[in-house]
Amino acid sequence: MVKLNKIYTRTGDDGSTGLTDGTRVPKHSPRPQAYGSVDELNSSLGMVYFCLNKENSNLLHIEIKNLIREIQNDLFDLGADLATPISKEKEKYPALRIKKRQIDKIENKIDYYNKSLKPLNSFILPGGSEASTLLHQSRTIARRAERDISLLSSIEDINLQSLIYLNRLSDLLFVLCRVLNENGLKDILWIPGLNQK
Question: CATH classification of 28-86+95-196 is 3.10.129.10, yes or no?
Answer without folding.
Answer: no
